[in-house]
Write a structure and sequence with these properties.
Elements: E1 2-4, E2 9-12, E3 19-23, E4 26-30, H1 43-79, E5 84-86, E6 92-94, H2 101-109, H3 114-133, E7 147-151, H4 158-166, E8 170-177, H5 180-192, E9 200-204, H6 207-213, E10 241-246, H7 253-262, E11 263-273, H8 276-279, H9 284-291, H10 302-319, E12 323-333, E13 336-345, H11 347-351, H12 353-356, E14 357-363, E15 369-373, E16 375-377, E17 382-384, E18 404-411, H13 418-429, H14 444-455, E19 465-466, H15 467-473, H16 481-490, E20 495-496, E21 504-507, H17 511-524, H18 529-534, E22 537-538, E23 542-543, H19 545-550, H20 593-611, H21 615-624
Parallel strand pairs: 1-3, 7-8, 7-10, 8-9, 10-11
Antiparallel strand pairs: 1-2, 3-4, 5-6, 11-13, 12-13, 14-15, 14-18, 16-17, 19-21, 20-21, 22-23
Helix pairs in contact: 1-2, 1-3, 5-20, 6-7, 7-10, 13-14
């Protein structure tokens, strides 16, 4: 039986009863049960990852060229004696302040087509590898280093094979999995997908151990129990991985410590977590144990808080080793979260970590919240933050007088690099303009909607409100979202939607301004008598939160008369917040490894018999390979 991951339809049956799944560039052959994990829900995840790794590869080439250009300009400057004078002590001193060589280098290279540069390096790499394999004595120049990618929890290796086919300038893709049957299946699929086995290498082993062994570079990693080496002997490589992909079944927490050490300086970590019940606050004690952070149970902003908790965990683990993270893009998708971060070596930036991590004070009476950083900078040193009356009155909510509960610590700095996200949107909108292999991607329509919504998001304003939640608190009808957001902007505040929640409001406006807007809305749209009677009082609790909020006079008046051509009412066309394409759209059951072993062996024996080979013949063939 064959299946297409792009549309999820059966297209026929195979005689050996295996399942054949085609996903863009790669075709996978699975045993006909749930033996090796595959979930078509994750096609978007893989398409998104390919897009981000392509951009990361271009950025690495750009940064390498800029450093080389800077070095060249610096040499030219210091080799020119006219730029120096000799001091009384006989030392050379520049006549003027040393130029900003990096700024000059960027200016010199600003017109470079980096996509074309990557393609040129990729062509040179393929030519060099072909010459080495042919045993040529006249080898072309060795190309610059390409991407080294680790698929730490690869299962059947579909993600890795797509990386090989659809990302250019790749030197190494490591398919690693703890289960031998999964790797056996991956090797079978490698042979059937035209994959270069000198680039895509398989390994049986614990993903955490692979990360720890890679801390000193891929050359330090020992062979796996089967004797497979990380690099092919004909193409030895050095250095840590440029990209490490963590896509576990559940939490990525056990792998984070090793991953932040194994990735290169400036490399990228792609991390998925599917334990949303934990991150959203249903099991706060488990969340604290895994991520060292307390979520807000039933918090309306749970999806973004989950992202920020994961980013905090990555930052905290990296800080222990003199490293820090820079988020490139962060996504809440379906039943999981996915973040892309770069990891850099910098003890100076590690000292600033307290400015990027903080806590949320959530009112127990209404949706009001306050975000407080862990530390502040005095101009000389970093000191703990001081809580004052800006987050309430006498330690209680200024709107309802209720207590606060505290969530965190979590990442409070920006969660997206909007320059990268904007470039990703262009790539998905016009795939033919960039000459990438196997474009357009299978989920390009949904991917475009996701990236477009993220590109419009305020990434430096932590957390958000839900408009229906604000209206429900006041017992009022829900205002039109576009009108409400546009009114906030006309008051001088920044405002946006979010990529996960269609009814969310992300803004830098304080709580009192949000509630003044709601007071004005209720003034113009009075609460229905039925709603008003229902919300008069609560037994033994006195006045409701809505009554306490609405009995205050607003500090300003507004009529919610927004121009029809306001930009927030006329956004770019994109598929935002799509419905699930089918029922039961969610995670699959964990793979049945025991059944896998039996099924893979059965299929292998059948194919050996069909080929007329004996077991000894097969062993000889493997040795020759």
């Amino acid at each position: 039986m064959t299946k297409s991951a792009a549309n999820g339809t059966d297209t026929g049956a195979k005689a050996d009863d295996t399942v054949q799944i085609t996903e863009n560039s790669s075709t996978m052959h699975f045993p006909n049960k749930n033996e090796v994990f595959y979930n078509k829900v994750q096609v978007l995840n893989r398409d998104l990852s390919i897009t981000m790794i392509r951009l990361h590869g271009e950025r690495l080439v750009k940064e390498r060229r800029e450093k080389a250009e800077k070095k060249k300009l610096r040499k030219i400057f210091y080799d020119n004696p006219d730029n120096f004078e000799v001091t009384d002590k006989g030392k050379k001193k520049p006549k003027e302040q040393e130029p900003d060589f990096m700024a000059q280098a960027k200016e010199n290279l600003k017109s470079t087509d980096w996509t074309a540069e990557v393609q040129s390096e990729d062509a040179a790499r393929r030519l060099y590898r072909s010459a080495v394999k042919a045993g040529s004595s006249d080898l072309p120049p060795s190309p610059p280093a390409g991407l080294k990618i680790m698929d730490c929890l690869a299962a059947s290796g579909l993600r890795s094979m797509r990386y090989y086919h659809e990302i250019q300038n790749v030197d190494l893709v490591t398919i690693n999995d703890l289960e031998t049957p999964a790797i056996n299946l991956a090797e079978n699929n490698i042979s059937q997908n035209g994959v270069d086995p000198t680039v895509v290498r398989t390994r049986v082993g614990d993903g955490t151990m692979l990360c720890y062994e890679s801390r000193n570079g891929v050359e330090a990693v020992r062979p796996d129990p089967r004797g497979n080496t990380i690099c092919h002997p004909s193409f030895p490589l050095k250095g840590r991985y440029d990209v490490i992909d963590l896509d576990p079944y559940g939490s990525a927490a056990p792998f984070i410590d090793g991953a932040v050490q194994a990735v290169a300086d400036g490399g990228m970590l792609n991390v998925t977590c599917t334990d949303m019940a934990v991150l959203s606050g249903n099991h706060p004690e488990t969340c604290f144990a895994k991520y060292r952070s307390m979520p807000i149970h039933k918090g309306r902003y749970l999806h973004e808080l989950a992202l920020r908790i994961l980013l905090q965990s990555l930052e905290s683990q990296a800080n222990k080793y003199g490293r820090h993270i820079v988020p490139i893009a962060s996504f809440g998708i379906d039943f999981y979260i996915r973040v892309f971060v770069r990891v850099f070596d910098s003890k100076a930036e590690v000292k600033k970590s307290s400015l990027k991590i903080g806590y949320v004070y959530q009112s127990l009476g209404c949706p009001s919240f306050h975000v407080v950083p862990s530390g502040t900078f005095t101009g000389k040193s970093y000191v703990p933050s001081v809580i004052n009356n800006t987050i309430g009155v006498d330690g209680k909510c200024a709107e309802t007088g209720k207590n606060f509960k505290i969530g965190g610590p979590f990442w409070t700095a920006p969660i997206h690099d909007l320059e990268v996200v904007d470039e990703a949107v262009k790539r998905v909108e016009n795939p033919r303009d960039y000459g990438q292999p196997h474009d357009p991607l299978p989920t390009s329509k949904r991917l475009h909607g996701l990236l477009t919504t993220v590109s419009e998001e305020l990434s430096d304003c932590p957390l958000y409100y839900l408009l229906p939640d604000l209206a429900s608190t006041c017992r009022a009808q829900v205002p039109p979202r576009g009108t409400f957001l546009a009114q906030l902007e006309e008051l001088g505040y920044r405002v946006s939607a979010t990529h996960k929640e269609a009814d969310a409001i992300k803004t830098d406006a304080p709580n009192d301004v949000i509630w003044d807007l709601m007071r004005n809305w209720v003034r113009l749209n009075p609460i229905a008598a039925k709603r008003e009677r229902k919300g008069e009082t609560e037994p033994n609790k006195g006045e409701t939160a809505g009554m306490l909020i609405l009995e205050k006079e607003p500090k300003f008046q507004c009529e919610f008369k927004v121009k029809k051509n306001h930009k927030l009412l006329n956004r770019k066309k994109a598929t935002r917040y799509p419905l699930n394409p089918e029922a039961n759209w969610g995670p699959k059951a964990r793979a049945n490894v025991t059944a896998t072993m039996a099924n893979v062996e059965e299929v292998s024996k059948r194919k050996i018999a069909e080929a007329g080979l004996t077991t000894s013949n097969q062993d000889d063939a493997k040795k020759q390979k």
